[in-house]
């Protein structure tokens, strides 16, 4: 595999960190012998984009808190991430500020009583817009991956939406899925196919 390619799995970013442990990105990069850092480009309230509003169950244009970050791998741009939260959860917390959050946002959310029970991720590929191309330093014609993740609590309430843009030729996404066949309790429930809009 190309030494500049990053292998990514979502699980470390969905689990609260123990007190005193750094953020998941720095730990994940260090485990692969790399250096992971991030720069917060913006944090504060904005009008929810249509897709974000839909995923959070809000009205389009309703206020949300966003944290816009540039994720760096060995000091090179690796990902541009916008994370959105309902204002009722994030207003007045570290999620709305420019400072780094000890243990990451997932740890702060857990302390605030918001723990993920279900995550849905959609991945698409396409061309970056001008801002994305400049920020991520992609070559002309180089495609990006767009990963949209919504995190829901045990009551199926969405409380976080992440929209990530990554240079496609620098990424490898890994999905590990535990399969529960419900042994001893009958056959597994039938799958309901989802349709793309």
From TrEMBL:
SUPFAM superfamilies on file: Chorismate lyase-like
Gene Ontology biological process terms in this record: negative regulation of DNA-templated transcription
Origin: domain of life: Bacteria
Transmembrane segments: none
Endpoints of the signal sequence: none
Cross-referenced InterPro entries: Bact_HTH_transcr_reg, Chorismate_lyase_/UTRA_dom_sf, UTRA
GO MF entries: DNA binding
Ranges where the UbiC transcription regulator-associated domain occurs: 31-172
Protein name: UTRA domain-containing protein
């Amino acid at each position: 595999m190309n030494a500049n390619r990053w292998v990514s799995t979502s699980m470390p970013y969905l689990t609260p960190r123990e007190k005193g442990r750094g953020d998941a990105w720095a730990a994940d990069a260090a485990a692969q012998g790399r250096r992971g850092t991030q720069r917060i480009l913006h944090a504060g309230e904005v009008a929810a984009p249509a897709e974000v509003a839909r995923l959070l169950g809000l009205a389009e244009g309703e206020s949300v808190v966003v944290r816009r970050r540039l994720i760096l791998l060995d000091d090179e741009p690796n990902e541009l991430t916008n994370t959105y939260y309902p204002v009722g959860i994030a207003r007045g917390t570290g999620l709305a500020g420019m400072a780094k959050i000890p243990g990451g946002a997932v740890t702060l959310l857990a302390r605030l009583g918001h723990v993920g029970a279900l995550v849905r991720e959609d991945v698409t590929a396409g061309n970056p817009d001008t801002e994305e191309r400049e920020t991520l330093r992609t070559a002309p014609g180089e495609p990006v991956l767009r990963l949209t993740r919504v995190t829901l609590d045990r009551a199926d309430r969405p409380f976080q939406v992440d929209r990530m843009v990554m240079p496609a030729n620098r990424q490898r996404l890994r999905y590990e899925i535990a399969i529960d066949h419900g042994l001893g309790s009958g056959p597994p429930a039938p799958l309901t196919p989802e349709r793309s809009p």
